Amino acid sequence: xxxxxxxxxxxxxxxxxxxxxxxxxxxxxxxxxxxxxxxxxxxxxxxxxxxxxxxxxxxxxxxxxxxxxxxxxxxxxxxxxxxxxxxxxxxxxxxxxxxxxxxxxxxxxxxxxxxxxxxxxxxxxxxxxxxxxxxxxxxxxxxxxxxxxxxxxxxxxxxxxxxxxxxxxxxxxxxxxxxxxxxxxxxxxxxxxxxxxxxxxxxxxxxxxxxxxxxxxxxxxxxxxxxxxxx
Length: 231
Hints:
Elements: E1 5-9, H1 15-36, H2 44-58, H3 61-86, H4 105-111, H5 113-128, H6 134-151, H7 186-214, E2 222-226
Helix pairs in contact: 1-2, 2-3, 2-5, 3-5, 3-6, 3-7, 5-7, 6-7
């Protein structure tokens, strides 16, 4: 009698993570859709959220890698600004709304995903590995999003159809939602984003994530499952 073993890949994202994250997205999506409208999901951070959901269930590194390339640095700034606001040392003001009592605690709680999502993405990259195609894939996706936001969505300072309607999405008209930037033509600002974001934000993150992946578990892990013995 001979015992053989079948090699099968083991699960790399725990089931509780899959279920908890999916439940969170299932609550966030209808609430954001009702409060802000569907164009809110064109923000980079929201797109990254959906890519993370794909990575959670498919365990394909490309999805987590793309999201991590796109949002890690901006969301680290969000984290720093939030912590600064929390201890009374505001920095750049990007998280002022998180401390606005006029915004419901529930809505602010949902928005707190900006803090923990990049940490989860780094965990996914560590567990699943880093797909080096992510830099090119996210850059192309970001360019498409920029063009849609610039040519289709309301600009900064626009008269909105409803108060919470997203405008100046992904800052394609400048850093101030109240009015477009005025120190260069709009097309020049857009060109600056198209060139600058991949160069200054995405590419350094790409190189950093390659290093993170080397020290993680980004290889197929296998476990042996006993096969029925026979004669």
